[in-house]
TrEMBL record:
Entry EC no(s): 5.4.2.11
Residue sites binding substrate per the record: 9-16, 22-23, 61, 88-91, 99, 115-116, 159-160
Name this polypeptide is given: 2,3-bisphosphoglycerate-dependent phosphoglycerate mutase
Domain of life: Bacteria
Function: Catalyzes the interconversion of 2-phosphoglycerate and 3-phosphoglycerate.
Catalytic activity as recorded in UniProt: (2R)-2-phosphoglycerate = (2R)-3-phosphoglycerate
SMART domains xrefs: PGAM
Length: 204
């Protein structure tokens, strides 16, 4: 029987707090972000989830969040694999800019298209489609086989690298994915079938 797959977005980062496009930049989480991660850890504890392995990105905010969740669960000893493949969408030239200033400069609609559309990349950066193209092979090659072996897996990652994965797991269309927002520290718990499709998704 497949194990459970839990996806968690990192807690609030210093740049989320400052309302800056972040992408591959590497700020840590704030005190509020730590609390969000602790709360997620408590929720998973109440569900009695015992992880066998965790995966996270190359970026501090996702790694720190993953460490906090595992320590709340008393599972800090499990193997954690870090990969750039799970990094946030590369925001290119927008990284470091204030999101409201960007709206003033390029207009609400254009900024929304860069942030939420499926296939329009921000200048010099990755579209969600590009992000799917790196997240999905990594998931299929490195994570899915473990879930299929019955291992319970935690993925601590980012708003858009997780939107990429959720799009595939939930079979969302490019139109539907534009509406999906994932909050900081927000977890999703998936139970998969033997054919790798989703049997059940729990949100908290
Ligand atoms: O990289 C960022 O700026 C955020 O983590 C996610 O940004 P978004 O809400 O614009 O997708």
């Amino acid at each position: 029987m497949p194990g459970v797959l839990v996806l968690v977005r990192h807690g609030q980062s210093e740049w989320n707090l400052k309302n800056l496009f972040t992408g591959w930049k590497n700020p840590d989480i704030t005190e509020q972000g730590e609390q969000e991660a602790q709360k997620t850890g408590q929720m998973l504890k109440s569900k009695n989830v015992h992880f066998d392995e965790a995966f996270t990105s190359d970026l501090k905010r996702a790694q720190h969040t993953t460490d906090i969740i595992l320590s709340i669960l008393g599972q800090g000893h499990i193997p954690i694999t870090r990969s750039q493949a799970l990094n946030e969408r590369d925001y290119g030239d927008l990284a470091g800019l204030n999101k409201d200033d960007a709206r003033k400069k390029w207009g609400e609609d254009q900024v929304h298209i860069w942030r939420r559309s499926y296939d329009v990349p921000p200048p010099g950066g990755e579209s969600l489609k590009d992000t799917v193209a790196r997240v999905l092979p990594y998931y299929i090659q490195n994570i899915l086989p473990k879930v299929m072996q019955g291992k319970n897996i935690l993925i601590g990652a980012h708003g858009n690298s997780l939107r990429a994965l959720v799009m595939v797991l939930d079979r969302l269309t490019p139109e539907q994915i534009t509406k999906l927002e994932i909050g900081t520290g927000e977890p999703f718990l998936y139970k998969l079938r033997n054919d790798t499709t989703v049997e059940k998704k729990e949100t908290f």
